[in-house]
Amino acid sequence: MVKRKKLFLVVSLLVILLLLAACGQKPAPAPGPAAPDKPAPGGDLVMALLSDAVTLDPHTGNDVPSSNVTYNLYETLVIFDKNNVLQPLLATEWKALDDTTWEFILRKGVKFHDGTDFNAHAVKATFDRLLDPAIASQRLFLFSMIEEVTVIDDYTVRFKTKFPFAPLPAHLAHNGGGIISIEAIKKDYEEMAAGKKPGSYLSQNPVGTGFFRLESWTPGNQLKLVRNEDYWGQKPKLESVTFKVVPENLTRLSELETGYAHIADPIQPSDVKRVASMPGAYLHRKSATSLAYVGFNCQKAPFNDVRVRQAISMAINKMDIVDGIYRGTAIPAVGPIAPGVFGYDPSVKSIPFDKERAKQLLAEAGYEKGFSTTIWTNDNPARIQIAEYIQSKLREFNITVTIEVMEWGAYLDSTGEGKHDMFILGWSTPTLDGDYAMYAALFHSSNQGKAGNRSFFKDEKVDELLDKGRQEPDPAKRLAYYREAQERLVDLAPMLYLIHIEDLTGVSTAVKGFDSTPARMFLLKDVYIEQ
Question: Which of 105, 173, 382, 523 has the least CB density, counted as fewest CB within 10 Å?
Answer without folding.
Answer: 523
